[in-house]
Design brief:
alpha/beta; Enolase-like, domain 1; TIM Barrel; 2 domains; seven-stranded parallel sheet; four-stranded antiparallel sheet; 14 strands; about 35% helix; about 20% strand; globular
Amino acid sequence: MPLVRAELWKLRLPLRNAVEWTAGGAEASVPYVILLLQDDEGRCGAAEITCRPAWNGFTQDLMINAFRQLAWPLLVGLEAGEPLMPRLSGIRGMTALKALCDNAWHDLGAPAPKGGPIRVASVLTRMAPDAAAEAALKVREETGINAFKVKLGQGISQDAAVLAALRRELGTETELSGDANSSYSLEDLPALFALAREMTLSFLEDPVPLLPDAVTGAACASFDVPVLVDKAMDGARWVRAFADRGLLHASAKPNRIGVSEAREVATAVAANGGRVCDGTYSESALGAAAQIAFAQSLPEGLAHPHEIDFHRGLSAQVAPLPAIRDGTVEPVSGRIAERLDRETLDSIAAQHLEFAADAKAT
């Protein structure tokens, strides 16, 4: 059952409201590339990747060209049950390209088994205090979500005002965490951790540019709020390096580094006694389904509430929306590819390419 065919779509999905990211600025729509892989018996696997130079070094056109020139010639003929990543090991870097291929191949060969409901967290991007509180209350009313990750990095005083507004409106029973996207310096850490402790944050993600070195380890060790490594965690090889410096907690994002690598990260973090964050990577409803499938595969208690609600902010979709009720998202089963709305996808895609076994695109 060799791999004989592939399809790629280039598209943008509009946001209901513009988003201000700590890294990458503001945007009103999200750029995606969607990949479909097919074997000679007609079985298909699908995956998506967002393409942002500030996030993963890719534009959509660069991703398409990298797949055409680098990945597809190596993947055509891949047999069922054969791991995909060794085929791409000769390509240096290009984590996003490898993640896209790995996730589609995993979907083809290992459909998700039925799981249980997954507790969800919502991400609040950079905004004013009153706007953040209003947005959180609306999310809680509509979905029952009672866990929020707050994008920090607006300055300690502004971050404090945002967190105080959220605590005031949401109460102490709501779980809050913070993600500074490496916005601060080591000199800022005492004030930042004092704020995190005062607001009872469950963890602080990337408070500074984190490195697995003695300086970073010593700086973070003196504070009692858990530090979670995200930006530097592009593979399981980094888990031990950071753990040796006392940083035990890490992101495991299947749509950023691939489901195979994300599972290895989760396994390594668990072995060190840490916890993982299945963080958002701007997933549409299609990518959210893959995120849910990954969440279902993790041992209970290993992960913080899963960040699976970005898709709710998109005004167009190419797959059914995963329903969120009482703070949990409905489970998925089967292949992600089976959720793909081909008619809608073909109507909104800016480009559609097909690849056959001769490695030529049409």
